[in-house]
Every structure is written in C-alpha cells, then in structure tokens.
Design brief:
two-stranded antiparallel ribbon, five-stranded parallel beta sheet, alpha/beta, Rossmann fold, 14% strand
Length: 298
C-alpha cells in the first residue's frame, strides 16, 4: 500500500493538535436567528447539534437547510439493500427516506418542520455545478435527474445550475434574515461541502448580507481522532487546520446536550448503518466553529 505511510503520518499528526486551546464560542442570544446550511442530512447534527440546542434554549430562531437529500451515497445503498434483499431501494428512494430522517433529527434538537428547508440538489455533483461556466443544467450521476425532483423542496423543478442554486439560497437568506450563518469548511475534502461554502458566499454577496459566516469541518482524512464514540473527549481540528487560516472557537456542551446530540444522530439511521464509528466520533464534549480567513479557490 504505497499511501499507507503518508496516511498514517497524517493520522498521527492529528493527535498532536489535541493540546491546542481555543477561545470559547459565544452562545446565541434570544435576538439571534441562525441559518445552518448542511450539505447532506446528518452534517447538521455532526457539526451543530449542540449549537442548535443552545440557540433554541436561548429563544433564538434556527433554520436548517439541506443542500442535497443525500441521493448519491452508494455505500448506504449497498448496506441497506444487503440488509433487506427483498426490498431493494434506488438512491432516489433512499434520499426520500433521508429527508424524513432529517426532519426527525431536527425535531429531536428542537427545530420544527416549517423551519427545515430542502433544496434537493444532486449529492456528489454540487462542485461541478458550482464551477460550470455555462447555464446548462448538469445531470445527477446517481439519479439521472437534471432538476430538483423532490416533494417539499424549496423549489421543485429548479434546474441543476449554479444560478438556480445561488438564487434559491439568496431567497432563503432574504426570507429568514439570519444574524449568524453556519456551513461546512471550504477545505473540507468532500466536494459537496466545499460547494456549500461557495454557494452560500455567492448568495450572501447577492443579497448583501452582513451576517457572519461560521464554518465547521466534517471530512478531512482519518479524522476525528480517535474514531468511535468518545463523549469523554474534546473535538480538536486536524493538524493542518492549525495553520492560522481558520480562527477556531469551541462551544462546550453539557451532558444533556451531548446525550441529545447522540439521540438526534440516531434519527439518521441510514447513515449509522454504514459508518457508525465515524459518525459517533463527532459526539464529543464540544463543537468547533471557525472564522475562515484564508483564500479558497473554486
């Protein structure tokens, strides 16, 4: 395995970051309104479940938007179909189920269905969509759709184009008027997560939103470390993310908030079926939110 050495070295370096100390993240206030853009159903719980609970307890408004319904996860499809060979599901059918899981997970952290928004863009294809230089809709490589096919979507039938996505996000920003915005880090290694950041930045520019944009990390090599359910440990960023481009803040969670985060994560049953140790690794003593100060290229 030619890459085993570098991968192991990066993994071990990630443990070195555990001694880093970060300033406290200022909890939301009653006057705040939060918008969380989650690339897929489960990212909102992995990165923000504690934050959401703290905001709701303070009386703040919380809106959760999902860039995709998770209709590109072939690993999920393989696991689910292996468990129930009599009821084989397409990725489109699985994504409809993931939509219901997202609503239940939101309910478990105090967010009602009217405050949950599904955009329905293609899982695994949002990065080429954002980088496209023309106005032709892209076609999802996993579902074959070139427009939003889902019921309860913000705009069913919207073409899979950059302009369409930015316009829908801009309308959502105008409708919800958030005082703080959260989405995934622009250096997250999942391309949908990078796309979420850039789409939100473009939408903020379009409506001239002054709300601060906070980022959280989900995918970066063998991380979080150690893997598995370790609610006794803090979450710290991968070693390369201590380079000064991201100013990190830590939100310390109570035992009740940690327990509720785990309970909300269980609602994403399709994902836990395929990657339980990885997902449970985000149930920690804290959550990390960053101010991105670097330059992220499209």
């Amino acid at each position: 395995m030619p890459f085993a050495g570098p991968i192991l070295a990066d993994h071990l370096r990630n443990f070195a970051a555990r001694d880093a100390v970060f300033p406290a993240f200022e909890p939301p206030k009653n006057s705040d309104s939060l918008l969380i853009l989650s690339p897929h159903p489960d990212d909102e719980i992995l990165g923000c479940a504690g934050l959401i609970q703290r905001a709701k307890a303070a009386g703040a408004r919380v809106e959760i938007a999902f860039l995709t319904n998770g209709d590109g996860s072939k690993t999920t499809q393989i696991v689910l179909n292996a468990r129930s060979w009599k009821r084989r599901q397409s990725l489109f059918q699985i994504a409809q189920g993931r939509q219901l899981e997202a609503l239940e997970a939101a309910r478990r952290v105090g967010v009602d269905a009217p405050n949950v928004h599904f955009l329905g863009f293609p899982d695994g294809a949002c990065w080429p969509l954002m980088r496209a230089q023309n106005s032709q809709p892209i076609t999802s490589p996993t579902t074959g759709f070139s427009a939003v096919p889902y019921e309860r979507a913000a705009r069913k039938g919207a073409p899979y184009t950059r302009e369409s996505l930015v316009e829908i996000l801009a309308n959502l920003l105008e409708k919800t008027a958030p005082t703080q915005i959260f989405t995934t880090h622009p250096l997250d290694t999942h391309l949908d997560h990078k796309a979420a950041f850039h789409a939100l930045e473009a939408a903020k520019t379009r409506v001239q939103s002054a709300a601060p944009l906070w980022v959280f990390l989900v995918h970066y090599g063998i991380w979080p470390v150690p893997n598995g359910f370790r609610p006794d440990l803090n979450l710290w960023p991968p070693h390369p993310f201590l380079d000064g481009q991201t100013q990190w803040f830590s939100l310390e969670l109570s035992e009740a908030e940690i327990a509720a985060k785990k309970h909300a994560l269980k609602a994403h049953a399709t994902q836990l079926a395929s990657t339980p140790r990885y997902l449970h690794a985000f149930v920690r003593q804290n959550e990390l939110f960053g101010k991105w100060e670097g330059t992220a290229k499209m």
